[in-house]
Amino acid sequence: MYGRHLEEDDILYSAISRKSIDTLKEFFRSDVSQDEWKLIMQLKGLLDIV
């Protein structure tokens, strides 16, 4: 709920896993832009995904 649990300046992260990244690579590689792959790489580092 906005104002109770979340504020405008809070940072939200998507829940991703090694399996979801592998699925993107296998089935949706051509649908994911270079900028989106860069974001996924950043999230991997933040979330300690190997």
UniProtKB/TrEMBL annotation:
InterPro entries: Transl_B-barrel_sf. This is Uncharacterized protein.
